[in-house]
Amino acid sequence: MASPVNLARVSLADAPLLDRIWQFYELESSIWSGCDLDETGRFTSLSDFLTRLGNPDSFDWAYLIRHEDQLAGLLLVGRQNLRGRSIMEFADLYVLPKYRGRGIASEVLRQTVLAWDEPWLICVFRKDQKALAFWRRAFERLPFSSVREALPSEDPEMYEFIVNEAIGPG
Q1: What percent of the chain has pLDDT over 70?
Q2: Which of 42, 78, 142, 166 could form a disulfide with 60, with the two C-beta atoms 3.0–4.6 Å apart?
Q3: DSSP label at 143?
Q4: Using DSSP, how many helices (H) and how many strands (E) does the chain show?
Q5: CB of 25 within 8 A of CB of 74?
Q6: 72 and 61 in contact (C-beta within 8 Å)?
Q7: What pTM does this model have?
C-alpha cells in the first residue's frame, strides 16, 4: 500500500509557495526564538536558500510534504560540514498543526533519513522543547542504527545528534 505521505522536491517555480509555508514555521518558532516581523510584516525569508534551489551544484534541497494530496508542511535538508566531515543534515521540518499526530513526521523520517545509506545530522534548537521531545521519542521508536549526541556542539544554541553512523558513507 502506498504511503499517504508524499515528499515533492521543490523546484525554483515552487519557491514562492515554500516561502509562504516558511512564514507559518517562523510564526510558531517565534514563541521560543523571539523573532519579530520585519517592516513588511513578514518573518525571515528563505531568499538565500531559495536562490540555491536553481543551482545544480547546490547541496540544499527542499520538499513540500503532502498528506493525502493536501499540502501539509515542508522539509529542508542539505549537506553540511561537521568537524571537517561532510554529512547530510535534516535541517527543518514543519507540519501544519491540522496534520500533526498522524505520523507524518515519522513517515518523512522513514522516506529520508532511514532510507539513505549514510549518517545524518539532526540539529534541534535548545529553546525548542517541543522539537526536542519529538526527536527523543523518534530516537526511541524508529529503527535508527545508532544515535549519539555530538559533544561539544559546534553551535551552543543547538543540540546536534548524529544518527545512522553505523551505516557509514554511501
Answers
A1: 92
A2: 78
A3: -
A4: 4, 7
A5: yes
A6: no
A7: 0.88
